[in-house]
Amino acid sequence: MRFGIAVFPGTWSDHDCAHAVRLAGHEAAMLWHKDRDLRGSDCVILPGGFAYGDHLRCGAIARFAPLMEAVTDFVDEGGLVWGICNGFQILCEAHLLPGALTRNASLQFRCEPSWLRVETARSAFTASLRVGEVLQIPVSHGEGRYVADAPTLATLEREGRIALRYVAPDGSAVGESSPNGSMHDIAGVLSERRTVLGMMPHPERACERLLGSTDGLRMFTSVAQSLARHGEFAAAGGRR
Amino acid sequence: MAGFAVDVVVTLRPVVNDPQGLSVLAGLRSLGFSEVESARVGKFIELTLTADSETGARSRVTEMCERLLRNPVIEDWRIDSVRTLSDTTA
Predict the structure, then answer these.
(1) Among A133, A224, A229, B31, which residue's beta carbon has the most beta carbons within 10 A?
(2) Is the pLDDT of residue A237 over 50?
(3) pTM of this prediction?
(4) Mutation site for B-interface testing, chosen from A93, A106, A107, A147 by largest number of B Cβ within 10 Å
């Protein structure tokens, strides 16, 4: 299958994502921010970085890029979109996901391992994972504190749309060790249709044993397995 | 048409925790300004634009705030001042 990888000026994890996609045995197509062409992607990744310098607010300018028009149409068609770090920020700014990502409670840029509990398997991104298992995937951000109003948080909890939550390595509550102080320890959220995932940690940086964890690679594999299982390859082919 | 200078202030909504403000508060107190009770950090944006009237300028800036300058999930905004720079219709 083909993962499309968005490239904005200031994106820094695009090649890491392409490397991860290839490690998982799939094809990576780079998608330039000025184009409206998703090049037949089965899943679009908005990678980490500082798109358009993150000026004004993280993701605030990027959401108006021509490519984002195509991404929004793709979401409307039911296409899979995966926002990682800055990509998560862009998806929130574009209102494709609820909430917002604000300055870490510590005011520090945190680049360190984090532990995530899988909260739902009801999405292509997590279908091959076990609910309750703990993944080790690093974070690398200064503005990843997830905030949303109380009704939104209640909806996310009720609908099981919190895909990943920060926990301690043993799976217990993260407490003060949270990398950013996110409300409800939220590390990743799903859209209402469960086809859009935004997450602050970087799965593409946890794909090789040499780097300390291969848990991230399992998420790339999960997307491919889900698409194959549900026969959406054919649908994606139709879009090409 | 006339030129206008419009000052926009964007603030975090009161319910949103402001670690930057808390850090500023701690800094001020450590300098001996013990009377400071709170500090919130926001953004100040100076715009210059042309419009047919002050009302017109305000209405366009309102649109700019709603579409780009603030994130409605976490921020409030207000126009702090509007000054006429020049009137080119004279």
Answers:
(1) A224
(2) no
(3) 0.92
(4) A147
